[in-house]
Amino acid sequence: MAGPVGGIFLDRDGTLCENGPGYLGDPGKIVPVEGAAQVLAAMAQAGYLLFLITNQSGVGRGYFPAGSVHSCNRRLLELFGSGKIFREICVSMGTPDRPDPYRKPSPKFLLEMCVKYALEPKRCWVIGDSACDGEMAIRIGAKALLVGSCADSPPQQGSPRRVPDLPSAWALIRAEDDVPNCR
User: Fold this and answer.
1) Which of 8, 23, 52, 87 is most buried when burial is the number of CB atoms within 10 A of its CB?
2) pLDDT in tens, 32-77
């Protein structure tokens, strides 16, 4: 049996679900972005291993307990209609002033998942909405796409490419990796 096509590491807030004001610690406020469930299903069907990778500094700042993050993640999976779409869910609860070793842009989660699942970083993608997502990918030689407006990261030469939304990111990955359109 052939191995995975590669890995796709997806940010949560602003990439898979709407990023409202403040910190997202209430599962009742989880709203998936349009097309996310279909895109994730197509990625998995095409043979990619999917990973959720998220910074959740609201815990480290004392705004809500770690259990709230896990409840939000479970709710997102329920809304996607699949409890097991991700191989792993990687959560950093560090803050910018008190980072843990996994806080993006650290590539520690990516490196560990690449080793654990025998993935080559150059065959992996990171999809996020923040400069730290792109920087994390670049640090290990993975490819990066930023979705949405990415207001915190002005475009620069050599920076990750930007696409308007998750379906556009998937279309670009399919084209670059020469993946047939799965139905």
Assistant:
1) 8
2) 999 999 999 999 999 999 999 999 999 999 999 999 999 999 999 9
Indicate if 100 belongs to the active site: no
Q: Does residue 182 fall inside a structural domain? A: no
Domain contains 183: no
Q: Is the pTM above the cut of 0.85? A: yes
Query: Which SS3 state, helix, strand or coil, does residue 110 take?
Result: helix
Provide φ and ψ at 111, rounded to 5°. Answer: -60, -45
Return mean pLDDT, the chain. 91
Verify whether residue 11 is a known catalytic residue.
yes
What is the tally of structural domains in the chain? Answer: 1
pLDDT (tens digit, 9 = 90+) per residue, 147-157? 987 544 555 55
Query: Is 31 part of a structural domain of the chain?
Result: yes
Concatenated DSSP letters for 120-166? -GGGEEEEESSHHHHHHHHHHT-EEEEES--TTS---TTSPEEESSH
CA nearest neighbour of 142 among 158, 123, 114, 155? 123
Q: Between these two residues, 5 and 157, which has the higher pLDDT value?
A: 5
1 assigned to some structural domain: no
Query: What CATH number should be reported for the domain holding residue 158?
Result: 3.40.50.1000
Task: Find the domain containing 57 and state its range.
Answer: 6-177
